[in-house]
Amino acid sequence: MSSADPTSGPEVLDAGPVRVLSLSAAALVVLVAEPLYLLVDTAVVGRLGALPLGALAVGAVVLAQVSSLGTFLAYGTTARAARAFGAGRRDRAIAEGVAATWLALLAGLAVVVVGQLIARPVAEVLGDGGALADQAVSWMRVALCGAPGILVAMAGNGWMRGVQSTRAPVVVVLAGNGASAVACPFLVHGAGSWSGLGLVGSAIANVGAQTVVLLLFGAALVREATALRVPLRPVPADLRAQLGLGRDLLLRSLAFQACFLSATAVTARFGAASVAAHQVVLQLWTFMSTVLDSLAIAAQQLVGAALGASSRSSARTVTGRVTRYGLVLGVLAGVVFAALAGVLPRVFSPDPTVLATIPQAWWFFVALQPVAGYVFALDGVLLGAADAAFLRRLTLGSAVVGFLPMIWLSLAFGWGLAGVWAGLSLFMLGRALGVGVRARGDRWMVPGGI
Questions:
Q1: What is the mean pLDDT of residues 20-33?
Q2: Which stretches are transmembrane (predicted)?
Q3: What pTM, to 2 d.p., does this model score?
């Protein structure tokens, strides 16, 4: 397996439908591989009973935060590596991968150590004590040992996307998750006279997957670095540069988490039907965010390469095209979900009270699809330009001015689920206005390699 595809010359700056689709499809496979594996994991553990499944839910929430807080390793590395790649400095792009991988390893080891110390108190809070917390602690203490692999995978995806490699990340992620999906039922339920390890078997399968991914991404990086004579030791200046960009992306990620955790907390106070309806529509929103994020990743790769090649005209062309693609995809999604309004919710719940509540959020969700397509495309453009400081300010501002006040006003005045989703709408419209104005200007188009 080669860690890079043969992309060079005009192809680096190609933003035609075929190239964008190729980059987006590869990113989408990587993005959905983990959620699909978690569905398998949930189904396997679900056969053990309600208590182990509840413990898995508690532990999975904690493990998800590791991925969320490590987002900068993927997006920040893509931006910096794409710039170098576009400038014809593949060696510099690989050096960014080396720096990101060192940060991933260091952060991952810190998570392992801290996780062992805080697993019990966190499980007590989230699991409300008792047997549920006990099982969640057992799962977390094993599963958190996979944190270095999770973060190395994010770094690996970052530098490979930067050099516009489309095959290798897909092969690596599918190999890890595929092996784990096969091993999980055996480790949990056993075979023949062996009864298996129960819930802990699921955690071991998780760690096994992340270890495979770590080794494959690590081997690909070593091959690239050796071929280009890039030092594999950590370079302090590169680490500092990565952390500078990562700070803005991390704060942006925390703003998203604050908004959506608040939305769930407030919705729960409107009753079981409201929180169940919110969960159904939110999961569909999350799924569509993953689809649209694949387009944003393609935009990030292409814009980074264009600016790295000092071609502002190419960056402007990419911006226009991916924005149109995002809008078209969003409009199509809106039409599809509008047509399925009377059918799709029933797939998730047969409860008449939940089905009666879903429309309060559903039509906000449908109307926001074109807005989301536009916002995600331009997010990718600005991330490719390493304009993370602006995106951090915009996200925090839209959250503080739009989303969070509306959420808590909904609680105060009893506006229900409609008020919560109106808050999300204000959040998205604020971001759409901000990225639209920013993209029309040229302050973000700083040419040259980073």
A1: 82
A2: 20-40, 52-76, 97-119, 139-156, 168-188, 194-222, 322-341, 361-382, 394-413, 419-437
A3: 0.78
